[in-house]
Amino acid sequence: MAGRDSNREYRRKRRMRSQIISYSVMAVVLVAVIAGCAVGIRAAAGSIRERKEAREASIQAASESARAEESAEAQSAVEELLGMESTEMETGTVYTPEDALNEMVEESVAGMTLEQKVAGLFFVTPEQLTGVGQAVQAGEGTQEALAAWPVGGLVYFKQNIQSEEQLTEMLANTVSYSTFPIFLGVDEEGGSVARVADALGLENVGPMAEIGSAGDAQAAYAANQTIGSYLASYGFNVDFAPVADVLTNADNTVIGDRAFSEDPQTAADMVASAVEGLQSTGVSACLKHFPGHGDTAGDSHTGAAETERTKEEMDGAEFLPFRSGIEAGADMVMVGHISAPALTGGEKIPASLSEEIITGILRQELGYDGIIITDAMNMAAVTDYYEADVAAIMALKAGADMILMPEDFQQAYEGVLEAVQDGTISQERVDDSLKRIYRVKLKDKIS
């Protein structure tokens, strides 16, 4: 019995030892597991944290990228807007010389009374303005006359010129007495028509036919630059030159060697150079005598003059020098008194009074938008058939801007004034002409 008890005790101790070992192992394993879990948890937490940080960094990077992109887009949009605004500002607010000229023209015309506007359409002699027999000075009479009738221009002839000093003083005084800018003009073509050179004993550049026969356009430029230079030195700002007629009729004596050539293209080349040479001196050129006086046998100074040339013929000849002179920038075109039935539906009316010729051909077909002035309205081709006021009204209604030397200035002035007052001529029509006139008068004041 003692042996069985001893065995039972041994087995009990061995079970306890085994349990202790098992618990110990379990404890070790549990500790290891716990430790491993802790490490795993820490690792997982670290991994999660890293992934979170990575994700946050990615999100932040993406956000920053998006913000940068949005900022770039916004900046681009702002720059584009600013660029547009800048362009608009440049387009809308940059004050160009053309803008300045337009503003000066508008202000000049708007500041005139109707009476002053009508007077501004006339280009007369100083004798017609003042009533004196021969004008060789500008004094109180000129001042009073210009205050009453501020004409657009005065034209001088050999009888008005005595010396360089006298001429310079007379023109300077005239300018000082005029309320508005004024044209001071003369016929100075060279050759047989050289009022200033002949009166003052200056060297005459010679007839334009001689220059044209040599075919040297540069010589035409130089001759007219010479003319313009001495005219400007005395105070003139308009020269009724060059002659743009083509001498297509050998029997024509009124034009003769005043024309450059009988060849239309040669004449055209010479006229363009003449305009450039003259206007390089600040003196306005005036092409004459539209639609072309070179084919007529008659002289409009002494009576009716007519051309039988067709429109097609004139397109290929007479019109060429006028086209080239217009392209060269001629400030004025003078319309002659010749009749051209082929251009006016068979009607024998002076070109200076014809709407078909002035507005239809010169303005619309040739595209001329400068000053259109009539030839001298005291010539027999006009005075034999029309009163001074009737002729002036007809010319303005036909599209002319200025009336040169009407037979009776007072009658013509009063007639035009009344025509505007009663609506026969619209004030808008008068304003249009004055704006063309003032664009030329004021152009040199704009740099």
From TrEMBL:
Q: What is this protein called?
A: beta-N-acetylhexosaminidase
Q: Which InterPro entries match?
A: GH, Glyco_hydro_3_AS, Glyco_hydro_3_N, Glyco_hydro_3_N_sf, NagZ_Beta-hexosaminidase
Q: What Pfam families does the record point to? A: Glyco_hydro_3 (PF00933)
Tell me where the transmembrane regions lie.
Answer: 20-41
The catalytic activity, as recorded, is: Hydrolysis of terminal non-reducing N-acetyl-D-hexosamine residues in N-acetyl-beta-D-hexosaminides
Glycoside hydrolase family 3 N-terminal domain boundaries: 115-440
Q: Which GO terms describe its biological process?
A: carbohydrate metabolic process; peptidoglycan turnover
